[in-house]
UniProtKB/TrEMBL annotation:
The keyword Metal-binding applies. Decomposes hydrogen peroxide into water and oxygen; serves to protect cells from the toxic effects of hydrogen peroxide. Residues 1-23 have a biased composition (Polar residues). The active site is at H55, N128. Homodimer. The keyword rRNA processing does not apply. Belongs to the catalase family. PANTHER family: CATALASE. This is Catalase. SMART domains: Catalase (SM01060). Gene3D superfamilies: Catalase core domain (2.40.180.10). It catalyses: 2 H2O2 = O2 + 2 H2O. It comes from Ramlibacter cellulosilyticus.
């Protein structure tokens, strides 16, 4: 029979007694010199790193991305350089607004963050299960999230706060329509699509840039819960989505997604924006498939569960700033804000050396000049920690992204698009795409969520629904008992 390992302190020192504290006599007080006791209590007090402000509750798994179609005309990124090439991945799914103990079936967007461990470093595509978002400017993000959290006086969720914000931000209507539709309560993580949501870019070997949007289409098929089902499951099994994902992978039923892109050249962007009046970089908008069809790229498969949730899922630290040569950003305001905010959040939440942790560590050779700080694992050895092109270190010249940049125009200032942008047509299009019974569920969900909200806020929001589609506004008003 195999002997269990010998219990030690974190420093490897054998523990003499793990059942009884060191005391001054049989009934005396505990002595401070009982280091094993002190170490256990200290570590216990620190077992919880600060939870994420958003996406606090999540599930994760490892997998592979396999290229099935040639897109090398658009990008020089090496992970796409041949059909059949595989890249290791880690994916984290999450709810957005709830705390770590919240239910998996709450009406909420779902995070869909994919890390690709490429030969040129980690590429993080941190998106959602929706192709749009509530706001288009990051300066509003803290305010928006505060309305989705808890009232500072009552410490309870507040429909008044939510609808007050949305009613004053008509650009949110498109995402609100998606949120209160059937897709607002997906049946687990395997049966939902994923999106990069933002406009990103690709750079070819010739230095040409195109704008792209990323899509992950579930091979399991879309499946959603009704509002009643979601509430019931929240009480019966609040970890429903996590259990479903873990058990599916454990039994070998590996979930897969078809990965595709929409591509827009800058010439097409100028023409399309002129024709539609929409901003291609506006996160509250989508690119219609009839204008920009999806082009297949590959398949994402999840096939390995983590062994340690805290080490691999909770401490996974994504940032959309992590792109590899051949991939790039765009002028999307929300993306620009996230390029700073995500990495900054991980520095606070996990620590200054969070990239040293196995789940975050690149799987290719790397060298940087960052040194020291908490949780230093690999401190760079004897290589100089400063820019020493002419000495013994690394030379960054001639490497890197080779990003061609994009043209800038206009005077620096704070530009308010509200009242000028069309925030209603795409929301109306989404409503009109739904079947009659889906429209009925949407308007019922909204009406139920708005009960008890002050009249002024209801009237303001009903006006937005009516601008998107008169039937949309009329149905919500009828179910709220508002006279026309």
């Amino acid at each position: 029979m195999r002997q269990p390992p010998r219990l030690t302190t974190a420093s490897g020192i054998p523990v003499a007694d793990n059942q009884n504290s060191l005391t001054a006599g049989p009934r005396g007080p505990i002595l401070l010199q009982d280091f094993h006791l002190i170490e256990k209590l200290q570590h216990f007090n620190r077992e919880r790193i600060p939870e994420r402000v958003v996406h606090a509750k999540g599930s994760g798994a490892y997998g592979t991305f396999t290229v099935t179609h040639d897109i090398t005309q658009y990008t020089k990124a090496k992970l796409f350089d041949r059909i059949g090439k595989e890249t290791d991945t880690f994916v984290r799914f999450s709810t957005v607004g709830g705390e770590k103990g919240s239910a998996d079936t709450e009406r909420d967007p779902r995070g869909f963050a994919v890390r690709f461990y490429t030969e040129e470093g980690n590429w993080d595509l941190a998106g959602n299960n929706t192709p749009m978002f509530f706001i288009k400017d990051p300066i509003k993000f803290p305010d928006f999230v505060h309305t989705q959290k808890r009232d500072p006086q009552t410490n309870m969720k507040s429909p008044t706060m939510m609808w007050d914000f949305w009613s004053r931000a008509p650009e949110s209507l498109h995402q609100v329509t998606m949120l209160f539709s059937d897709r607002g309560t997906p049946d687990g993580y395997r049966h939902m699509d994923g999106f990069g949501s933002h406009t990103f870019s690709m750079i070819s070997a010739d230095g040409e840039r195109v704008w792209v949007k990323w899509h992950f289409k579930t091979q399991q098929g879309i499946r959603n819960l009704t509002a009643d089902q979601a509430v019931r499951i929240a009480g019966e099994d609040p970890d429903y989505a996590q259990r479903d994902l873990y058990q599916a992978i454990d039994r070998g039923d590996f979930p897969r997604w078809d990965v595709s892109i929409q591509v827009m050249t800058d010439v097409q962007r100028v023409e399309w924006e002129k024709r539609t009046g929409w901003n291609a970089f506006d996160l509250t908008k989508v690119w219609p498939h009839k204008d920009f069809p999806r082009l297949p790229v590959g398949v994402l498969e999840l096939n390995l569960n983590p062994e340690n949730y805290h080490a691999e899922v909770e401490q996974a630290a994504f940032s959309p700033a992590n792109v590899v040569p051949g991939l790039g950003y765009s002028p999307d305001r929300m993306l620009q804000g996230r390029l700073f905010a995500y990495h900054d959040a991980q520095l606070y939440r996990v620590g200054t050396n969070h990239q040293h942790l196995p789940v975050n560590r690149p799987r290719c050779p790397f060298h940087h000049q960052q040194r020291d700080g908490a949780m230093t694992v690999d401190n760079g050895g004897a290589v100089a920690n400063y820019d020493n092109v002419n000495a013994f270190g690394t030379d960054a010249r001639g490497f890197g992204h080779g990003d061609p940049g994009w043209a800038l125009e206009g005077v620096a200032g704070r530009y308010d698009p509200r009242g000028h942008d069309d925030d209603f047509t795409q929301a109306g299009n989404l409503f009109r795409l739904m079947t009659a019974d889906a429209q009925d569920r949407l308007t019922t969900n909204i009406a139920n969520a708005m009960r008890g909200v002050p009249q002024e806020i209801r009237e303001r929001q009903l006006g937005h629904f009516a601008k998107a589609d008169p039937r949309y506004g009329a149905e919500v008003a009828r179910k709220l008992g508002v006279k026309g």
